[in-house]
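Hi everyone, sorry if this is the wrong subforum. Our group has a chain we'd like a structural model of before ordering constructs, and none of us has done structure prediction before. Sequence below.
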Amino acid sequence: MTATRWTTIYLSLALFMGAILLLLLWAVPVDEAGNRQWTDQLIPGFWMAWTFPVALFFWIIASLLIVMTLLAIRYPEIPRVGILRIETTRGDRLFISLLSAAFINLGWLFFFGAPLWGALILSLGFAVAVFRWV
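Answer:
Right subforum, don't worry. Here is the predicted structure as tokens:
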């Protein structure tokens, strides 16, 4: 494939994911005063309580999977051995990062409670370290 074709693929997927994000933002309920209710249900009366934070979480996971798939197709990799002394690929490192982020957030909730901004910063830092050295 030529670089132009890859650019078209990247832009198409970016526009698609951007449109989904805008749709999620549009679906956030607004009260009488015009304030957005970020934690209210996106679809009132639906069988599952989809709130904007939950939908955004799944949107981020889907975006990560799309990016990792494109990277694997465009730039195939050879598994490498890091400080854990196990062979890992990009997908393995993403899985380790996401699983670790879940435990970091649970630990943060146990020791410090909400809000989770500190846990988010720790999780992002840990993910950078995993992708760099694991």
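For your construct planning: Strands lie at 80-81, 87-88. The CA atoms of residues 30 and 36 lie 4 Å apart.
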